[in-house]
Amino acid sequence: xxxxxxxxxxxxxxxxxxxxxxxxxxxxxxxxxxxxxxxxxxxxxxxxxxxxxxxxxxxxxxxxxxxxxxxxxxx
Amino acid sequence: xxxxxxxxxxxxxxxxxxxxxxxxxxxxxxxxxxxxxxxxxxxxxxxxxxxxxxxxxxxxxxxxxxxxxxxxxxxxxxxxxxxxxxxxxxxxxxxxxxxxxxxxxxxxxxxxxxxxxxxxxxxxxxxxxxxxxxxxxxxxxxxxxxxxxxxxxxxxxxxxxxxxxxxxxxxxxxxxxxxxxxxxxxxxxxxxxxxxxxxxxxxxxxxxxxxxxxxxxxxxxxxxxxxxxxxxxxxxxxxxxxxxxxxxxxxxxxxxxxxxxxxxxxxxxxxxxxxxxxxxxxxxxxxxxxxxxxxxxxxxxxxxxxxxxxxxxxxxxxxxxxxxxxxxxxxxxxxxxxxxxxxxxxxxxxxxxxxxxxxxxxxxxxxxxxxxxxxxxxxxxxxxxxxxxxxxxxxxxxxxxxxxxxxxxxxxxxxxxxxxxxxxxxxxxxxxxxxxxxxxxxxxxxxxxxxxxxxxxx
Lengths: 75, 458
Fold this sequence. Notes:
The complex is a heterodimer of chains A (75) and B (458). Chain A is mainly α. Chain A contains 4 helices and no strands. Chain A is elongated. The N and C termini of chain A lie far apart (44 Å). Chain B is mostly helical and 458 residues long. Among the domains of chain B are: 1-135; 160-249, no CATH class. In chain B, α18 (308-323) packs antiparallel against α19 (332-354), α19 runs parallel beside α22 (389-408) and α23 (414-426) packs antiparallel against α24 (435-448). In chain B, 40% of the residues are buried. Classes of the chains: A mainly alpha (75), B mainly alpha (458). The A-B interface holds A 1, 4, 9, 12, 17-19, 21-22, 24-29, 31-33, 36, 40, 44 and B 425, 428, 431, 435-436, 438-440, 442-447, 450-451, 453-454, 457-458.
């Protein structure tokens, strides 16, 4: 998983369907692993969660920039 | 108003042309959005057309003028043109979605017009054949919604079916594609009108449709809805034994139909190679992939009514033929043609796999082995899928459907699944061309084969 979810690949992600499919696919794997080995599962979760957080963080930053007082004054 | 213009334009043939032109515009422009008319006026105009169509227009003008044709002393070209205008105006009026009652006595009130339509279908004038075919198709389409009102008309059409078949076979023999397209539309409507009878005992009409399909590429679009409906209806026959008996009427036709469908799903070389540079979503391929989707749904319909394993021997034969002499192929052109055949067969096999029954999966062993061979790279030699995006997409598509079948029937296929997943992950590298297909295949693999894949997450 770590080989697939490399930073270069993750940096291209958006909320498009294909990335949603990839994350959903990983979630099935994590679910299965969690039933077999919780220790291994704890290392997998951050790997899968990270790609979700990167675009989310960007979206939050964008909203923050658009709504900050300076930018609002500039219209 | 109609009585006035009929009176004013009935003196001679030139006036008849004017009258027909006015009537055509009355019918065709009533929905013209550029003519701004208050809604209530529009409504009363529609009512006016509905109430005048049967007697004033159909009986007193169309039928009367058709009856007059033989007594007119005019040159043949003018007569042909008048026949054309009469049918064309008649067509504009029957397209108006008039109340079904207008047609309830069509054979008694408008028989000369209907006879003219049939007579002109066999004429040598291309434009008259076209407009006559359109009239017949339109009347039959209207009859679908109100069979009782068109009963006498449909009886006449069925009585003339044999003559129409002979006429169509002559058109096919002449190689006239444009006319073949018009006759395809007629036979599709005939098929819809005859659907129950066809299911009960088969019909020579199906052979005519197949012959048209083999001749004319555009016939494919026109015929799809008929074939899909036919197989949908057969698949809904509740008793399997009864369904099997009914299907025996179609054995010969079915083989020819599937063969033609497989041929139609094949990409041309330009498209096959262009997929190395462009996504399947490019507008350039829109028409081809739309047709493929429709053909896929027809194949699924056939699988549902006849069972996937009815189709598989035909595909398997195609596969054997395609792979024949593979080892001697070295020229790039020969190999591309082989891969194009395989791409098309994998597409068809994927449709079949979607509808496969438990226990039938092992029959696809050869196809699975073929996919494994196509996705495997041989040392430094790149795999076929590495060289051709079309192959990569199709192999991914097939893996997606076979994985679904594996999951559905709880079949263990650990070694294949691992190889399929590694191949699917390679598709993530190309965001433009292969990521979408690979991502949905990856989801399918993880969903259905999580148990096999989970040890590989370390």
